[in-house]
Write a structure and sequence with these properties.
22% helix, single chain, 4-stranded antiparallel β-sheet, alpha+beta
């Protein structure tokens, strides 16, 4: 199993969720997060005053999938979340040693 952690722009969430659902992803966890990368934030002007925005709002997706579909899930996120502008996000893929469904006690791919 693979854990796919993706950070995307907030306005892309619905589009990415629909594309993943169409690709067969059965569930995901979504968290509102703030962070910065190479862009190191930006400045905005509000009522004539300039403010430094050090942390940019993002959406974090945590998705656990079987090994055989991980590449297609990553490709779907990449294609759907891309705007071509700075700050589109990142995708990390990690190995998952074990998973368990609490209600039934199912483990491994059956728990997904």
């Amino acid at each position: 199993m693979k854990l796919i952690i993706a950070t995307i722009k907030p306005f892309k969430l619905d589009e990415v969720r629909e594309a993943l659902s169409d690709a067969g992803v059965k569930g995901m966890m979504v968290t509102e997060v703030k962070g910065y990368g190479a862009q190191s934030g930006h400045t905005e002007i509000y009522r004539g005053a300039e403010y430094a925005i050090n942390f940019v709002p993002k959406i974090r997706l945590d998705i656990v999938v079987p090994d055989d579909v991980a590449d297609s899930v990553v490709s779907t996120i990449e294609a759907t979340a891309r705007t071509g502008k700075i700050g589109d996000g990142k995708i990390f893929i990690l190995d998952v040693e074990q998973a368990m469904r609490v209600r039934t006690g199912e483990t491994g791919d059956d728990a997904l």
